[in-house]
Design goal:
The complex is a heterodimer of chains A (about 375) and B (about 400).
Chain A (H helix, E strand, L loop, with lengths): L1 H4 L5 E3 L3 H4 L17 E3 L3 H5 L3 E5 L3 H12 L8 E5 L4 E6 L2 E7 L11 H19 L8 H19 L8 H4 L15 H18 L17 E2 L1 H10 L13 H7 L3 E14 L12 E11 L13 E9 L8 H7 L5 E8 L11 E8 L1
Parallel strand pairs in A: 4-6, 10-12
Antiparallel strand pairs in A: 1-3, 2-5, 3-4, 5-6, 7-12, 8-9, 8-11, 9-10, 11-12
Helix pairs in contact in A: 5-6, 6-8
Chain B lengths: L10 H7 L18 E2 L7 E4 L4 E3 L2 H6 L3 E5 L3 H12 L8 E5 L4 E6 L2 E6 L1 H10 L4 H16 L8 H19 L8 H4 L15 H18 L12 H5 L15 E2 L1 H13 L13 H8 L6 E11 L8 E12 L14 E9 L8 H6 L5 E7 L4 H4 L3 E8 L2
Parallel strand pairs in B: 5-7, 11-13
Antiparallel strand pairs in B: 1-2, 2-4, 3-6, 4-5, 6-7, 8-13, 9-10, 9-12, 10-11, 12-13
Helix pairs in contact in B: 3-5, 5-6, 6-8, 10-11
The chains are: A alpha+beta (about 375), B alpha+beta (about 400).
Chain lengths: ~375, ~400
Amino acid sequence: MNKYCSFFLVMIFIVSCNNTGNDDKAINPAGLNINARACYFDDVDSITKKTTIKLDSPGRHEIEEINKLMKFTGLPLNFTIYRGNVKTAMATLLNDQRVIVYSKDLFTGMSILDSSYWSAMFIIAHEIGHHLAYNISDTTNLHDTELAADIFASSVLYSMGADSNQVLYALSSGIISNDGDTKTHPAISKRIAAVKQSWYRAARMRYQAVAPPTADDELMVKEFTERNLAFNAIGNNYFYNMFTKDDDKQKVINYFDPVRNLEGTILDVKKTRHHYTDADFKKVVQLKMTILVTHIDKVDQHETFRENHRYGYEVFYEPKLRTDRIKDLYDFFKAGRRIKFDVINLYKGHDYGGEVLTIIKAKVL
Amino acid sequence: MIVKYCTILLAIVFAATGISCNNAQHNAQNNPGNNFQPPTAKKQGLLILNSRACYFDDVDSIEKKLEIKIDTPSRRETEQINSIMSYTGLPQNFKIYRGDINNAMATMVNDQRLIIYNKDLFARIDDIDSSYWSSMFILAHEIGHHLAYNISDTSSMLNAELEADIFAGAILYKMGADSNQVIAAVASRFISNAKDTKTHPSKYKRIAAIKKSWYQSSQLRYLSAIPPPISDKFSMAAGSPTVTDGYGATSTGYDATGLIENNWAREKNRNKSFEMISSPDPKRYIDILLSGSRNYQGIIVDVQEKIAAAGFEEFIFLEIEVIITKIDAAYNQAGLELNRKSRFLVCLDAENGFIGRTGPLNFFTGGRRFDFDLYDLKNKNETGGLLNISRADALR
């Protein structure tokens, strides 16, 4: 608590560009040397060109609420926070220290059922957003920096439980002085639109896991053919004894209803040891994976597959030639890889249960 | 006439406070602007460090590398940083480069936030678990240094590292990493030290901090706002007569065929009390298992996918949290209370071609308003005492 209370009634001078911009020797009574840009929640303070702000230590409950907010970001609360005679709140950097000053009147309601609670939290979150986005000193895109702070505030308030109306109180309850664009702040309608969009986005993302990044490594082997993949799988299969060694290979594959030219992204891969003990299959490596199917060749459309659905697949690989390396297989079947592939249903007509989709051919996209 | 803000940049501050990790200051340069040549597609760039940088691991700090050759980033890492930032709600305003360092680092040059990484390390470390969470963690850690603004904090370097780890643990939870994936990078033998060094805490302290952060993040999840209503094919079809395909999926959701029959088949082999029922008619299952818990309405506020038991990988098991918004007093055998949250189970066979995986995951998701019935599988080991959903129809 000491950290926030140690500067009781310190004076900060915010130096404006038009008069003392070149004078970096503005020294206040406490001896601080301050010359920095500040971001306000609203345009009012900027208009009054307040350069001297009286500071007071923040309330204990208010710090607790701000601490709660930071928990939702996973980041430490390392701001120096003051109450001061600003109209809403402001963020600035002083001697490499992140400073937030909020109005004495900001926190009037301290329950999440109070609309003013969410309004206060939004304003504080907005200032925290300026610090986290590190855009206080960005003077070229002032409107963008304000919108970025609003977007952050909205997304963190969603996590804290603010509904789609509560997240807008700070902007819709008459605190904001400008309707249209000003030099520093965008029009209120733009801010409200950005906040709404960010709230809905946060709500959507809560239930979505991230898509894997594209695998962009240099691959030695960019394609696996039926030679390495298809016949190990079929050879392991219950139905294998239906065929003789002289049977045409394509005839064997066709029996298992191949689906060709699927496209998708590998989501995860598990290396498993195959459970066949037969000496013939000792060298066979088995992988299990989930693939998000992103494209189905309309000509070969199969009722089992739908675009943007996830399915589980297996791969059986056996090194056949001297140049075949298992490492190439592991490199190829990796989370994030976009591939084009053919599959068969190994348990076609089998009462073993469900389908085991086995990849018999795959190529990097 | 009125110029409201000072345009003097904070670069001055950074020039003054530029302190290297190991007090290895580069004295030849006075102007930090001269020390950074960004790379182009054709030409390699160079970064001469004269301000402090935060590395993921202690190795680079030991080597006291001051000149780093940098190249333009590859698409994969740029995508990764973009997706991490999209979960923070903050803009992506980092400059990203590949560099000839041992792992990854965060630093500031001319008031610009920089992240530099070693491409080979990412390929190697991701290969260990055939995943992408290790490289994701390392990048999130460096982002954490920037967001926590602790790069120039030389008084508590160990703490700064833990702060970055804690951020990475929290954000990776949100992105969907499980409790093992989140510690894979620090736990791996490639990086991180077993004992505290001058700059980095021991890997055991780091793992403990990451685990705790991951867990806290998972608890905070339940405080989020009630998700907005969903507008999709299920809710659009609500109100008009429900069309069923006979395999469990309907125009407005899922019926007993999909929600009970598969679960039933699974349980039949284990639970002897079920053997008395031989009929495959799912309607009878409802009657016998729990006939009096019907016609509830609620909003799904949370969904967790549970790991299926071995042999049932094709099933989807979900534990959902629902705020009950309407109760039919005549059919409230389960004794649910209005406006309270309750947890239920959902079991569906995802490899049934008519149900698939995406359909159920899109139906049973946050914000769904729906009308449902319940049944009791009467197997506490399996269900933890939770009731199962036996019918679900979307509401508008």
